[in-house]
Amino acid sequence: MSVADAVALALCDIAPVAGRELRSLGDALGRVTLDRIDAPGPLPRFDSAAMDGVALRTADLAQAADLPLAGTIAAGDGPSDLPAGRAMQIFTGAPVPHGADAVVMIERCRICGDHVHIDHPPAPGDNIRPLGSDQAPGQVLIEAGTRLTPHHIGLLAANGVTEVALRRKPRIAIFSTGDELTEGACAGGQINDANRPMLLALIRAAGAEAVDAGVIPDDLAASAEALARIAPNVDLIVTSGAVSMGGKDHLRAALDAAGGAVRGWRVAIKPGKPVLFGRIGEAAYTGLPGNPFAVHVGFHLFVAPQIARLSGTAPRAFATFPARAGFDWTRKPGRAEVFPVRFLRYDETGLPVLERLGRSVSGTLLPLSGADGLAMVPGETCDLRSGDALRWQPFSQGDIR
Ligand code: AMP
Ligand code: MG
Questions:
Q1: What's the CATH number for 21-38+143-167?
Q2: 359 CA to middle of ligand 1, Å?
């Protein structure tokens, strides 16, 4: 399968999870809205001063540049009236007194005792933020199916919204497989389980609920039993290892034995070719290979879109951001390839120039440690020269040095 076909297959029978939860705004960060949220009222709620200064009637300045002052209005004060022929001192955010049609900024006023002198008369409307000018009542604040970010939280708070209807978080179970896996001190042929902690972290960072289902031994019956036991409790099962051709690679058979179905196997991608897609009961199943870098790549290519679909947001294509190679590379064509990259500089057209990290496809996660993202080349690429166009996926655009 091509990567595109595999992504389509990964998503083909996944629907957003059912389940509605009302949560306070403080618990809503990273969660997905179920309904469209409309503005309950106008913002600003009243005509308000955009500057510290003096509120007045512009027409009063036709006769005189000097006006007597009639008090002060601060932010938080209630409504007031501007007496005829007078001005009032006003602070930013305060309600403009009825009758005033402009605010003159304090830097342009000369206040002498209980009078103000205006050298440059303002135009009507100057430095007033009219009621509803930021936002009309009923205006769409946040569309349904939006993952809430800090600015959404701020917008809802500004509108007095304290509770939000959210979609339940998708529940995703993680298994590692392999008799060699342990945690902590290793003896003999043991190695530490890297994939399960990494996948649990990736899933939590993607806004889903991660269920740690432990390590399955390299045994067909134990694998089938573990899959059948967890499937009714989750929306998606993600495993690592045991999907290749070796005699200990039991997951394809285990999926069958557990009453599930294989939907597809093997993707033209490097690393991580033997990816397995399937279903068991109501749960989707994605079997990533064992090599930890392949697990990381497989998560971004296939599992992240599955989480998006389960969450009710739109899955995004992987590695669509334009960049340029800052390296020369000759490779064997055939499979698309993903590799860690580091940001070097911007070129004269403003595109990021990337360095390729990690000389070979290996099990190590070390090259990712200094990486700013992942780049992907299509299967047909065999020669990449410094300055050639490239597509990449920054881990976080804000953090690029
Ligand atoms: P497999 O696909 O099960 O043959 O695994 C491929 C390679 O990845 C082997 O060298 C495994 O030891 C290694 N591997 C499998 N699972 C893990 C894991 N959870 N953490 C670290 N390495 C793993
Ligand atoms: Mg294995």
A1: 3.90.105.10
A2: 20
CATH class for the region spanning 48-129: mainly beta
Burial class of 132 by CB neighbour count within 10 A (0 to 12, 13 to 18, 19+): middle
Q: Which of 191, 219, 238, 243 to mutate to test the pocket of ligand 1 (most atoms within 8 A of CB)?
A: 191
Q: 83 or 63: which carries more pLDDT confidence?
A: 83
Distance 173 CA to ligand 2 centre (A): 18
How many angstroms does the Cα of residue 242 sit away from the middle of ligand 1?
8
Q: What's the CATH fold of domain 3-17+169-311?
A: Molybdenum Cofactor Biosythetic Enzyme; Chain A (3.40.980)
What residue ranges in 169-328 does DSSP mark as E strands? 171-177, 181-182, 191-192, 209-216, 236-240, 261-265, 269-270, 276-280, 283-288, 321-325
Tell me, using a 6 A CB cutoff, whether residue 194 lines ligand 1: yes
Residues of the chain with CATH 3.40.980.10: 3-17+169-311
User: 165 pairs with which residues across the strands?
Assistant: 22
Residue 19 has pLDDT above 90, yes or no: yes
- List every span in the chain annotated with CATH 3.90.105.10: 21-38+143-167
How far apart are alpha carbons 115 and 119 in whole angstroms? 13
Whether residue 209 contacts residue 19, with contact meaning beta carbons closer than 8 Å, is answered with: no
Average pLDDT over residues 216-244: 98
CB of 298 shorter than 6 A to ligand 1: no
- Cα 279 to ligand 2 centre (Å): 21
pLDDT(142) > 60: yes
Stretch(es) of the chain classified as CATH 2.40.340.10: 321-394
**Range(s) within the chain of domains with CATH label 2.170.190.11:** 48-129
Model pLDDT, residue 9: 98
Query: pLDDT averaged over the chain?
Result: 96
* 334-342 mean pLDDT: 96
Q: Which atom of ligand 1 is nearest to the CA of 180?
A: 12
For residues 45 and 94, is the Cβ–Cβ distance under 8 A? Answer: no
Tell me the CA–centroid distance for residue 175 and ligand 2, in Å.
Answer: 12
CA nearest ligand 1 atom 6, residue: 290
We find that the CATH architecture of domain 321-394 is Beta Barrel (2.40)
pLDDT in tens, 160-201: 999 999 999 999 999 999 999 999 999 999 999 999 999 999
